[in-house]
Structures are given as C-alpha cells and as structure tokens.
Specification:
Layout: H1 3-22, H2 36-44, H3 49-60, H4 68-94, H5 99-126
Helix pairs in contact: 1-5, 3-4, 4-5
Protein name: DUF305 domain-containing protein
InterPro entries: DUF305_CopM-like, Ferritin-like
Keywords: Signal
Length: 131
C-alpha cells in the first residue's frame, strides 16, 4: 500500500467513524418498518437526501459482472460519489460554521474523487471500462 493510499484510507476511516459516532443510535440502522412514503418524507427533510437517493439508485442499477473485483469497484464508485456529493452539499449549501468539519468535507471530496479515478483505471484494466 502506497503512502497516498494509506492517507486516503486513514482519512476515509476517520470520516466514517466521525459520522457513526455522532449519529443517534437509531439513525445507524435503517428502519425497515417504515413505508417507502414515510422514508421519502424523512429523507426529504435532510439536505443530503438527494445524494443518498442517487447512491441507492446507482447501486441498485449496477449490472454485476460475476467478477468479484470488478463488482466491488462498480458498487464502490456510487458509494464514494455519494460521499463527494454530501461533502459538496455541506460546503456549498449548508455552509459549515466549523473549520474542522469544512476541512474534513474538502478532504472527503479530494480523497474520494481520487479513489473514484483509481477505481475507473482498475476497471478498465480488468476489462470493464466505465465513464
């Protein structure tokens, strides 16, 4: 693992830990008892709902290849893109008042976009090029 990869992994891990540690316990799991309409209403209240909806749609529409490596990468791209979209939402629409959170959001954008590019290169090498 390269130094850049280690840094990206460390920053990504910190971001995930920060998100999980600040979310209420009930928010860490999906309430499967809610109807689609109820879930849509609760998501509509979040400035991040569009990013989450886009990720879920993209992941659901991925045509798996049967190649575990390619499938992993194909599913991770929308996951990473959602993180980028959420970070941009914070920086552009919500305008974070906390410099540390804003810096984390920018780091998420930088690292996740770099990882998306790397995943696309790997997919092309594996014979599954994507746009």
């Amino acid at each position: 693992m390269t130094t850049v990869s280690r840094r990206v992994a460390a920053i990504s891990s910190i971001f995930v830990i920060a998100l999980l540690s600040t979310a209420p316990v009930g928010a860490q799991t999906m309430d499967h008892g809610k109807s689609d309409a109820e879930m849509s209403r609760s998501q509509a209240e979040s400035p991040y709902a569009d990013a989450m909806d886009s990720m879920m749609h993209s992941m659901e529409t991925v045509e798996e290849t049967g190649n575990p490596d390619a499938d992993f990468l194909l599913l991770m791209i929308p996951h990473h893109q959602s993180a980028v979209d959420m970070a941009r939402t914070l920086l552009e629409r919500s305008r974070s008042d906390d410099a540390e959170v804003a810096a984390m959001a920018q780091a998420v954008i930088d690292t996740q976009e770099a990882e998306i590019s790397a995943m696309k290169v790997m997919l092309a090498r594996l014979g599954y090029p994507v746009k």
